[in-house]
Design goal:
This protein has three helices and 23 strands. It is α/β, with parallel strands linked by helices. The strands form three sheets. The chain has a nine-stranded mixed β-sheet, covered by helices on one side. A seven-stranded parallel β-sheet has the order 2-5-8-11-14-17-20, with no helix packed on it. The longest helix has 16 residues. The protein starts with a strand and ends with a helix.
Length: 199
């Protein structure tokens, strides 16, 4: 399904397959000889998406372009089922496995691999040829690649990357507090308003 969003419609090169229940919404450009799988969602929420030639976006993957962070996938990239990419750049020949997540402002270098359930955190720069093992986390610039049990070190780096400020434009809540009461009403209104005319 190709949806117009804010006056922009997806552009799909000849020879590319889009599954009948995949959704491409807004300023999305897909190159030639690509396959967009069943249930995949490519939504140019508030920023564009571009997919290079010879890419496979597998079933139920979600790719989202956001303001200040367009999503770009280079040539010859595989994005596995249930992967989630938002506002990031993935260089050519990279492999993003099943369930992997790449967050806003992150870059994945050429030929890098983010294996099953791996995470590339916000504003993290994963160099070319790097490997994020199954379930591990890449965090920082340059990236440190750490196992999930290294929570203290991950948080030490992650806190400085300022997720609340970078993504939502708010200060981190004090200990025991939450940004959610401030952020969610505004974010929900934003989404409702922006998608009111989709079709």
């Amino acid at each position: 399904m190709l949806l117009t969003h804010e006056g922009r419609s997806p552009r799909v090169a000849a020879g590319t397959r889009v599954a009948p229940n995949a959704v491409l919404s807004g300023d999305v450009t897909v190159g030639s000889n690509c396959s967009i799988g069943f249930g995949a969602v490519l939504t140019a929420e508030s920023g564009p998406i571009s997919i290079g030639d010879n890419c496979v976006i597998m079933d139920a993957a979600i790719l989202r372009g956001v303001r200040a962070n367009p999503l770009h996938v280079g040539e010859n990239v595989l994005v596995g089922p249930h992967a989630y990419l938002t506002g990031c750049r993935v260089a050519r020949d990279a492999f993003i496995a099943t369930g992997a997540t790449v967050f806003n402002g992150a870059t994945v270098g050429a030929r890098a691999e983010v294996r099953i359930n791996g995470i590339v955190h916000i504003r993290t720069h994963l160099p070319p040829d790097a490997v994020v093992p199954l379930g591990w986390i890449a965090v920082g610039d340059p990236a440190e690649i750490l196992p999930p049990e290294a929570h203290e070190r991950i948080w030490e780096i992650q806190k400085q990357l300022d997720f609340p400020g970078y993504v939502f434009g708010v200060e981190r809540a004090p200990e025991g507090g939450s940004i959610m009461p401030r952020v969610m009403p505004r974010y929900a209104r934003f989404l409702v308003r922006r998608h009111a005319g989709d079709g």
